[in-house]
Design goal:
By secondary structure, the protein is an alpha/beta fold. It has a single domain, classed as Rossmann fold (3-Layer(aba) Sandwich). 40% of the residues lie in helices and 13% in strands. Helix 2 runs parallel beside helix 3 and helix 6 packs across helix 7. GO terms for molecular function: phosphatase activity.
């Protein structure tokens, strides 16, 4: 990680299941029209930033987003399995009402200890933090100095935990809109946003 000048973090564009408020996790749904447009705006905004490599989650919504961005950047795309979204286990594909019917009280238990709580049959944020560290270790062994990482909101929080030196609660409090790319200086642990909501963080 010490070799990086800047790390860019992008979330995939909006998907059909995002609109429906369904838990995606390791399942997938297609980018919406707005999601495709968000990826194109990322492509335009990221030109001129000296990005020298793209690393992406293996999930389709992230690969589709990275491919659109790369049409403008013309780089190699490296799929990193550890960048996949947090595994939602038996919650995958469900909306909150269905979760409350099938798993009564589970969302309240999650709220009580969000970092260590584990999706039934899936992962916890603590699990994802370990995986995010592995992803960054793998990316850090590549020659890129200004990599772009295209992944997801939940695993993205854990990437930020490591890159910004956050404690778990601070990391969990962060949000990552579809239309914003975070520009992180790992040395100073400063984070700025590129996009319509472009503010320092």
């Amino acid at each position: 990680m010490n070799s990086w000048d800047t790390v860019f973090l992008a979330r995939h564009g909006q998907t059909q299941w995002n609109l429906q408020r369904r838990k995606q996790g390791r399942l997938d749904s297609a980018l919406t029209h707005d999601g495709v447009a968000q990826a194109h705006r990322h492509a335009a905004a990221l030109q001129g930033h000296g990005i020298d490599a793209i690393f992406v989650s293996p999930l389709g919504r992230a690969v589709a987003t990275a491919s659109i961005i790369n049409d403008a950047l013309g780089l190699e795309i490296d799929v990193v399995d550890e960048l996949a979204e947090v595994d939602h286990g038996q919650f995958s594909g469900l909306i909150d009402d269905q979760i409350d019917t099938q798993f009564p009280g589970e969302r309240q238990r999650r709220a009580a200890d969000k970092y260590h709580w584990q999706f039934p049959g899936g992962e916890s944020y603590a699990d994802a933090a370990t995986r995010a560290a592995s992803a960054l270790h793998r990316i850090g062994h590549q020659p890129a100095r200004r990599p772009l990482i295209v992944s997801h909101e939940m695993i993205g929080r854990m990437l930020q935990l490591h890159l910004l030196g956050l404690d778990p609660q601070a990391a969990l409090a962060r949000s990552h809109p579809h239309d914003v790319v975070f520009q992180i200086d790992p040395a100073s642990r400063e984070c700025h946003s590129i996009g319509p909501g472009g503010v320092s963080a």
